[in-house]
What we know:
About 50% of the residues lie in helices and about 15% in strands. The protein is α+β, with helices and mostly antiparallel strands.
Amino acid sequence: xxxxxxxxxxxxxxxxxxxxxxxxxxxxxxxxxxxxxxxxxxxxxxxxxxxxxxxxxxxxxxxxxxxxxxxxxxxxxxxxxxxxxxxxxxxxxxxxxxxxxxxxxxxxxxxxxxxxxxxxxxxxxxxxxxxxxxxxxxxxxxxxxxxxxxxxxxxxxxxxxxxxxxxxxxxxxxxxxxxxxxxxxxxxxxxxxxxxxxxxxxxxxxxxxxxxxxxxxxxxxxxxxxxxxxxxxxxxxxxxxxxxxxxxxxxxxxxxxxxxxxxxxxxxxxxxxxxxxxxxxxxxxxxxxxxxxxxxxxxxxxxxxxxxxxxxxxxxxxxxxxxxxxxxxxxxxxxxxxxxxxxxxxxxxxxxxxxxxxxxxxxxxxxxxxxxxxxxxxxxx
Length: 381
C-alpha cells in the first residue's frame, strides 16, 4: 500500500494552506471575540477563493467542477478547519442533487455549482434523529401536487439557503421504505423558519422549520416515490466522512499550539514540556490523531476507488469525533486558564467538536451500526 499523498495533490493543499494563512487567520482575533463571520465576509472570502481557482473542487468535471475526488476533499477541509470559522469553499452541492432529473439540475444543481443558489438539508425532527423509518413529516399526494405537513429541527444553513432538500413520509405504513425526497424553494407558502436555536457553538445557529399544508408540484420530487432511504444513506455517508476530516484539522491545530506552548511555559524553573504529565498528554494526542487520519484517508481512498464505504465512514466519524474531543480537552488543559479564554481558538474548537458526536448520527448510533454490520444483524434485531 502506498501511504504517500500524490505530489500534485500536496501542492494543491499547500495553496489551500496559503489561503487560510493569508485570508482567514487575520480574521481570527475578531472571530474569537464575536463568535461569527458576517454573511458579507463569507461571500467576500468565497469570491476570493473562486478567483484563486478554489471552487467546486469535488464536483465531477462533466458538471463543470474540478473533479478532485474524496481524498482531496478531505485534505482540503482538514486544512481549512484549522481555523475556527468553519469556512469552506463554495460550489459543492449536496450529493443527492446529482440524482436530480435534467430540469431539476438546471434549477438546483447547476446554480449551486455556479454559486448562484444555496441549499439546506432537512432530515432531523423533534422526535426523530437517526431513526429514518419514524420520520413524521408527511407528504400526501393531491392530484399533480404534494401537500407537506410537519416539523424539522436543528437544520443548518437554512437562513442562507434558497431551497430545502426535504425528506418526508409518503407512506407511513412502509416505514423507511415510504420516505421520499423533495426540493422545496424558500418562500413557498406553508414553509416557514419557525425559530433559530441558539447553541454553544460559534457561528452555528440552526433552525426549526415548519410545514403547514405546504403544496409543491410533483416536479419537486427528487428520485422515486419511496426512494428517499437510498438517497439519504449516500448523503449521510458522504457527510460523515467529511465531518471526520473536519476533526483532523481541529485536532492538529490545537496540538501544534499546545506543543509550542509547552516549550515556552515555565513552572518551577522548567518548561512544562519537561513534565511527564504534559508529555503523555501530547503523546496520546499525537497517536490518536494519526490513527484517526489513517481511518479517514483509507475511507476516502476507498471511495475514490468506487468502493462502498458506509461502514468505513461510521468507523472514521466515530473515532475522529471522539479523538478531537479528547485532544482539544488535553490541549486546553495544557494551556490552563489561557486555553479557556477567548484569546485563543482552543475554547472555540472545544465547543465545536462536541456537536459532531451528535450530528449525522450519534456516537452511540455509530457503535450500534458498526456492531450490527459485524454481527450481520438487521436494524430490527
